[in-house]
Amino acid sequence: MKGKFIVIEGIDGAGKKTQTELLVERLKKENREVVVDDYPHYETSFWGRHVGRMLSKEFGNPMEISSYLTVLPYILDEADGSKKIIEPALKRGEIVISNRYFTSNVHQIAKRPEEEREIYANWLWDAGYNQMGIKKPDLVLVLLVDPPICRENILKKMERNYTNGQAMDAAEEDFNHQMESAKEYKKMVTKEPKRWVLVDCCRGGKLMPKEEIHKIILQEINKRKFL
């Protein structure tokens, strides 16, 4: 039996980790065979550690360096994970749930000037899926949360090793970038509605309880008869 591959996406602070954990917990209670992944692999892979060094500005501010260059360690980390973690699990018939993935490079698209984004996006997806052979997800669930709320959530995060004691990494601290990334996620949902799905996590300008968001995610997954 072929497995299924589901990715939880969204801008920084949207609650991806929380929703990934809730979904995995639910599947395990149903005795499903689940493999959990999380990108970048800051602590566990050669290229993931390189991403962390980049986001801590060791090589300069990545928000000021061409996205044709800054995306490369991400792609290498994701290609490595696709080959070593995701594809073997799918062949075993397991369900893979990933907190972010190659799909997160929507953030790199958002770094480009508006008039260059389409060209860059075509290059990006070709580079990953066709040139590197990265496995395409069956479903990408994009958590839509207002950027100001996300920013508040980022400030509540625990200190992470790769940020060298800073509250935010280079991408997180750029609020305009987060807003542009949210726009690009919405575009992807419009472009690929069968694979990318928007999950509206706010009501009346406030973030919904995590349990309610989880229910919406389950509805979207069940609607496609994935589980």
Written account of the structure:
The chain is an alpha/beta fold. It has a single domain (4-223), classed as P-loop containing nucleotide triphosphate hydrolases (Rossmann fold, 3-Layer(aba) Sandwich), CATH 3.40.50.300. Helix content is 48%, strand content 14%. The chain contains eight helices and seven strands, in the order βαβααβααβααβββα. It has helices at residues 16-29, 46-55, 67-91, 106-111, 117-131, 147-155, 175-191, 210-223, and strands at residues 4-9, 34-38, 95-99, 139-144, 196-200, 202-203, 206-207.
Key features of this structure:
5-stranded parallel beta sheet, globular, alpha/beta, 8 helices
Structural class: alpha/beta
DSSP E strands, number: 7
The whole-angstrom Rg is: 17 Å
Helix run count: 8
List the uncertain runs. none
Strand content: 5-15%
Number of domains: 1
Can you tell me the CATH class?
Alpha Beta
Mean pLDDT, all residues? 90
Q: In percent, how helical is the residue content?
A: 40-55%
Q: Label the overall shape.
A: globular
Strand arrangement in the largest pleated sheet: 2-3-1-4-5
